[in-house]
Amino acid sequence: MNMNVPRLPSAPRGIPTSIARILLGAAGAGYLAYNGIYNVQGGQKAVIFNRWGGVKKKVFGEGTHFCWPWLERAQIFDVRTRPKKMRSISGTKDLQMVDIEMRVLYRPNPDRLPVIWSRFGTDYDDRVLPSIISETLKAAIAQFDAAQLITKREEVSKLVRRNLTERAGMDFGIVIEDVAITHLGFGREYTKAIEDKQVAQQEAERAKFLVQRALQEKKAMIIQAQGEARSAELIGIALEKDSSYLELKRLEAAKDIANNVARSNNQVYLTSDSLLLNVLDSSAMDLSKK
Known about the structure:
By secondary structure, this protein is of the alpha+beta class. The chain contains 8 helices and 8 strands, in the order αβββββββααααβααα.
């Protein structure tokens, strides 16, 4: 029994091939866009590694750049200034041990990024800075006494910065922006010796001050005594010629007594002789006659 099955129309032979090409092209474009385009942000630089030629010498700045996928790879470096702290125990010129901490501001030299990547890798700061900072710091501290580290702290920082800048810049391509000593500690015995010395100096200064004050007080007393003696001498000379000065003092004393009695809340009855108000006293008259 023959059954007539209807046949479906066949699709054109070129359509699957076209769709495959479109999909393949889109996949290739997506792969190329994802792996071949990279962005360099502000404060960053990029270095290209080529599988055939190695690290390229050209350094790329901020912006969007293109590299060949699989064949090339971009490495981004941060070229902004960063801090690095180092702590070390060093010996001074007078054989004292010093616990010193230093803060270093550094950044990589953008022009030498290919060399830095080839020689030290992306963690160049952890590989290089601890050793050269410690070496430079120990060499600088050995040139000063323990006491000079306190009085010449800025000079020590400048010396470390100069030596560290030369060593890091010439040999490793690292730019040193600033160096500062953030902590300076001495041994227990040396610290106690410094404290005892400061206490002794303060006591010496206090003793010196007391001596100076005693001398000044002595001079003041001598001057005062000389003034009183001269005053008494002049008063004696004046009384030999005229007793008016004595009478004036007598009246001033009487005035002071009267004022004190007037301000008192108690009732006081005194004679004029007690108040020194009897200006017609016979003794005064006799003195005036003399």
